[in-house]
Amino acid sequence: MIRRGLNSGDRAPLEKLIRETSFFNAEEVEVALELIDDRLAQGEASHYRFLVAETEGNEGNIAGYACWGPIPGTLASADLYWIVVDPRHQGKGIGAALLKDAEDWMASSGRTRVYVETSTRGQYDGTRRFYFACGYDLAAELDDFYGPGDGKAIFLKVL
Q1: Helices and strands (DSSP H and E) totals, the chain
Q2: Residue 129 DSSP class
Q3: 47-95 pLDDT per residue, tens
Q4: Does residue 12 contact residue 56 with C-beta atoms inside 8 Å?
Q5: How far apart, in whole angstroms, are the C-alpha atoms of residue 135 and residue 117?
Q6: Domains of the chain (ranges plus CATH)?
Q7: Over the stretch 92-107, which tens digit does the pLDDT of each residue have?
Q8: Taking the model in full, what pTM does it have?
Q9: Do 64 and 85 form a contact (C-beta atoms < 8 A)?
Q10: Fewer CB in 10 Å around end: N or C, the chain?
Q11: Which residues contact 31 (CB under 8 A, 6 or more apart)?
Q12: 138 Cβ contact partners less than 8 Å away, ≥ 6 residues apart
């Protein structure tokens, strides 16, 4: 089941999920937590929108989440900030379901262009394949953006 929004009790399970993936570096973990904290503190006034995937039959057991937000200063563009899926649930379509629901939410909010940024490091090969498989195009690539040998890939999907 995918639900929109965060509950106050989601913070600890989401932090655990982010850390247990062992995919993100310390700075990325902190950024992910800042977005969660912003939403929990500001509620509907927050720039960030969240979707949470819970495993069936076990409400409260978070299998993954996605975070997006409208891009300030644009009429119809949105950033997809995060999709994180519990490693025990990867390969089961949860990431694709989160992405589809996020895209539907963006479209119903008047957003027609979705941008996703990710690293070009080899660690993110699967991530980039995922976005290609979900209909995203590589819009730009910036060499050495995050550091030497670590560029930024910017993906775009027109909804």
Answers
A1: 4, 7
A2: H
A3: 999 999 998 755 558 999 999 999 999 999 999 999 999 998 888 999 9
A4: no
A5: 15
A6: 2-111 (3.40.630.30), 114-159 (no CATH)
A7: 999 999 999 999 999 9
A8: 0.92
A9: yes
A10: N
A11: none
A12: 128, 132, 153, 154, 155
